[in-house]
């Protein structure tokens, strides 16, 4: 029987030769935009969330961190290597928020990956998420999660409303990525300041993109939230703003987001 995908050992060798990187975030951080920018580099092969419904595996890894390594070894690294074999790239990268809870395991099984964490002002991210289906009855993935006991007690989690859960997730996920990624960068600076983009994203990844290309892409709006935005920060209730700052304030202040 023909084996379509390489085994784990072969996958590691194939990936290591491509100097791979992962850029991850909570989502709503311009990931589609950055994929396009980085793919403008000749011989780069950069993909945006290549596995359909991979958010399911993110949710599983959030609840059960020990399974993240198994997912990488048994499937994901082999899937990457299989696609790379069919592409004559010199550099492989993923811009993928769905792998954010796999970065600790990734560092153990494939330590040559460079991992970058993008953070965006929590007020903007939470506003965007509130205008989506996250933690509603239509959400078949995150509406069923129960974070680990060491992160938050189940009783406290069940007592939270939708807004509070989204705030907690933003703070907890960004803290996890900040502590375990190689680099953390601010979304706003990446799209507004070319020197920051070059020094904080390109240089650590040993990439080069000139100003005109960066400007051409950052002047666009990609993967925007469509429709009426009802939940803008200015319209949050006072108790919601208080909960947000009590929950997210440490990460906000750490990255110089002020009230």
State the shape.
Answer: globular
Question: What value does the average pLDDT take?
Answer: 94
Pick out the low-confidence regions. Answer: none
Tell me the number of strands.
5
Q: Roughly what percent helix? A: 40-55%
- CA radius of gyration is 19 Å
Strand ordering within the main sheet:
2-3-1-4-5
Q: Strand-and-helix sequence, N→C?
A: HEHEHHEHEHHHEHHHH
The largest sheet, given as strand count, sense and whether it forms a barrel, is: 5 strands, parallel
Name the beta content range.
5-15%
Structural class: alpha/beta
Summed up, the helix count is: 12
Give the terminus-to-terminus CA distance.
61 Å
Can you describe what's shown?
It is built from twelve helices and five strands. With 259 residues, the protein is of the alpha/beta class. The N and C termini lie far apart (61 Å).
What can be said about this structure in brief?
This protein has 259 residues and is of the alpha/beta class.
How is the topology of this model organized?
Layout (H helix, E strand, L loop, with lengths): L7 H10 L3 E4 L6 H8 L5 E5 L6 H9 L4 H18 L5 E5 L7 H7 L4 E6 L2 H9 L23 H6 L2 H19 L2 E4 H6 L1 H9 L8 H8 L19 H17 L5
Parallel strand pairs: 1-3, 1-4, 2-3, 4-5
Helix pairs in contact: 1-4, 4-5, 6-8, 8-12
């Amino acid at each position: 029987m023909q084996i379509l995908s390489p085994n784990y050992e072969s996958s590691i060798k194939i990936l290591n030769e491509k100097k791979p990187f992962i850029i991850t975030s909570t989502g709503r951080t311009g990931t589609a935009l950055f994929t396009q920018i980085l793919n403008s580099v000749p011989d780069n092969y950069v993909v945006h969330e290549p596995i359909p419904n991979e958010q399911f595996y993110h949710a599983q890894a959030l609840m059960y961190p020990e399974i993240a390594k198994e997912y990488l070894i048994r499937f994901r690294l082999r899937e990457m290597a299989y696609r790379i074999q069919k592409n004559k790239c010199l550099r492989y990268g993923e811009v993928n928020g769905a792998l954010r809870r796999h970065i600790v395991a990734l560092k153990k099984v494939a330590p040559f990956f460079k991992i970058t964490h993008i953070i965006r002002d929590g007020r903007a991210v939470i506003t965007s998420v509130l205008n989506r289906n996250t933690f509603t009855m239509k959400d078949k993935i995150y509406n069923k999660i129960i974070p680990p006991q060491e992160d938050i007690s189940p009783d406290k989690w069940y007592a939270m409303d939708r807004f509070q859960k989204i705030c907690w997730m933003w703070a907890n996920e960004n803290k996890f990525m900040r502590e375990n990624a190689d680099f953390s960068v601010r979304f706003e600076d990446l799209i507004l300041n070319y020197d920051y983009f070059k020094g904080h994203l390109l240089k650590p990844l040993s990439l080069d993109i000139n100003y005109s290309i960066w400007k051409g892409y950052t002047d666009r709006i990609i993967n925007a939230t469509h429709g009426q935005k009802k939940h803008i920060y200015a319209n949050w209730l006072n108790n919601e703003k208080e909960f947000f700052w009590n929950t997210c304030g440490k990460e906000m202040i750490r990255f110089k987001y002020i009230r």
